[in-house]
Structures are given as C-alpha cells and as structure tokens.
C-alpha cells in the first residue's frame, strides 16, 4: 500500500493540535504529520520523499518566523518532486495581497481563514487527496471508500 502523507505547519502548538484533532477521522487511511516551522516541514518532506512516500497535501499557516506560509508553499511548488502536492493556506492574518500572492506564486488549492470549519476542512482534505491520487496516477482502488466520490466519478469519465 502506498503511504500518503499530509503535513500541517504552524508555529503555534495549540493551532496544530486543533488541526490534528479536526483531521483525526482521516488518520485511518492518511498519515498526518505536524511541523512547527517551514524548515522542519521541508526537512520532513525530503525524508518522506527519500523513503518513497508521497506528500499529498501541505496545510500551512501564513505568519511564521523565518519563512511565511506563502514562501513555504511557493518553495514546494518550485520543487519538481512535489509537482502534484496540494497546498492549503490556513491563516487569520494574511492580507489580501498575501492571499493573491499565494494563489499566483504558490499555486495554493485552497485558503481558509481562522477559525475554520471542521467539516469544511475535512471535506477539503478528502477532495484534495483524491485529486492528488488521480493527478499522480496512483491506483485509487485501495482507498476507494475514503475518497471524494464526485472527484472519482469526474476523473473516470
């Protein structure tokens, strides 16, 4: 079975804990990792890639020390190893221009303002991971019952 990873990045431990708790229903088929900085996330991505594992999705806060979430997601977008990795910006402090920059340079797939809705976040993750599986050309059958069925139907047409 292929290993699918989600990486959640936020410098505030309480926010990371809330995201992990919200994504708990997905833990039985997805590996969910947490990092407290952009550099920690990039190191983890290198390690996962070296082990032949997939980084399906990165969910990042924007305002962090060292690198912003937009800078992190832009760097991920520029790395050929992570061409299909989906990206979500989750923040309460991004400006309008930060958001536009994230869409244009980082190629984010979704933007959530804090506080986010749990159900909406879980549905977004399910949809983006389903898209990742199809974009990457992976055999989706082992995850069939967990995927966003509307995406599956659209991709099989």
From TrEMBL:
Presence of the UniProt keyword tRNA processing in the record: no
Matching Pfam families: Response_reg
Modified residues (4-aspartylphosphate): 61
SMART domains: REC
Matching PROSITE patterns: RESPONSE_REGULATORY (PS50110)
GO BP annotations, alphabetical order: phosphorelay signal transduction system
Domain Response regulatory: 5-129
Record-linked SUPFAM superfamilies: CheY-like (SSF52172)
Organism whose genome encodes this protein: Vibrio diazotrophicus
Alphabetically ordered keywords of this record: Phosphoprotein
Protein name from the UniProt record: Response regulator
